[in-house]
Amino acid sequence: MTDFSKGAAFIEGEQVAIADAKIPLMDWGFLHSDATYDVAHTWKGRFFRVDEYIERFEDSMAKLRMSIPYDRDQIRQIMFDLVRLTGLRDSYVEIVCTRGIPAPGSRDPRQCRNRFLAFVVPFVWIANDELRARGLNLMISKQQRIPPESVDPTIKNYHWLDMVMALFEAYDHGADTAILVDARGDLTEGPGFNIFARHGDTVTSPEHGVLHGVTRMTLLELMERQNLRINRGRLTADAARAADELFITSTAGGVMPVTRIDGHQVGDGKPGTLVHTLNDEYWALHEDPEYSVEIEY
Ligand SMILES: Cc1ncc(COP(=O)(O)O)c(C=O)c1O
């Protein structure tokens, strides 16, 4: 019997164990990073905001002129079926559309049959328990995030060379992760996360030149219910260094405090009160039927 407990994938209409999941070498998804993807998650056996993730995925495919033979309900069904197959309660659920393979010798993307695949693995954390408890040490990278004029970051994409080099730079300097900048040196996003800075009762989270994270959207909704002023504008490096609180958000871990930036303490150097509150509220939403659906295993 196949063991799906370490993960499962849906490829070419079939469910396979994650270790057996493969795509053809000639697919432009691999050769050209010509792909889009999305990552949802389940927590305690419930899918979190699954329709918002699927909607973003469909938007990304439309912007890239990709199409697949599955509608929203079918994608949803494939995701639920895969999770059920693994039996995982806390899981990371990725859906992918690659360009596919053009006719031999052709460079015409219109000839490609786009390929849909999905996989489920155990939940993935950007920061482990210890890091989340003490807060991350974030480095402002010299690396510039690919400009939105070149690759639209609202399309979730695999153009990660800038992010990977920024991670090397951060690790070389003893930091835990990196945030990339734009041409002006303002903060954008990091490998798999958006950023927030609190100064007094104003919270800034850059919106231009970044993926519009579902976690970021959730946190903005939570903050709008509080007496906080939200600024979706620029976050300069100086403003980030002077913040009372800094935190990052991702499907892979929720809301995570940053307590050092470029080696300097943020605020009093401890995770702040806002990040604590938001973390509790964020995970509580995972049990709220308005935000999550139960999976019948
Ligand atoms: C580049 C980038 N920015 C931001 C995020 C955070 O988005 P979400 O909250 O939807 O996971 C991700 C998630 O992987 C990402 O890859």
Q: Could you please describe the fold and organization of this structure?
A:
This protein is an alpha+beta fold and about 300 residues long. Helix content is about 25%, strand content about 25%. It folds into two domains: about 10-120, D-amino Acid Aminotransferase, Chain A, domain 1 (2-Layer Sandwich), CATH 3.30.470; about 130-285, D-amino Acid Aminotransferase, Chain A, domain 2. The strands form two sheets. Strands 7, 8, 9, 10, 11, 12, 13 and 14 form an eight-stranded mixed beta sheet that branches. It has a seven-stranded antiparallel beta sheet with strand order 2-1-6-5-3-4-15. The longest helix is centred in the first third of the chain and has 15 residues, at about 70-85. It binds pyridoxal-5'-phosphate. The site of pyridoxal-5'-phosphate has 14 residues, from helix 6 and strand 12.
Rg estimate, integer Å? 20 Å
- Can you tell me the CATH superfamily of the largest domain? D-amino Acid Aminotransferase, subunit A, domain 2
How are helices and strands ordered from N to C? EEHEEHHEEHEHEEEHEHEEEHE
Strand content: 25-35%
Point out poorly predicted stretches.
none
> What is the share of helical residues?
25-40%
> What sort of overall outline do the alpha carbons produce when their principal axes are compared?
globular
What's the CATH topology label of the largest domain?
Answer: D-amino Acid Aminotransferase, Chain A, domain 2
* Alpha-beta content class: alpha+beta
The CATH class of the largest domain turns out to be: Alpha Beta
Ligand catalogue: pyridoxal-5'-phosphate
By DSSP (H or I, 4+ residues per run), the number of helices equals 8
How many domains?
2
Integer average pLDDT? 97
CATH architecture title of the largest domain = Alpha-Beta Barrel
How many strands in all?
Answer: 15
**Largest beta-sheet characterization:** 8 strands, mixed
What is the straight-line distance between the termini?
18 Å
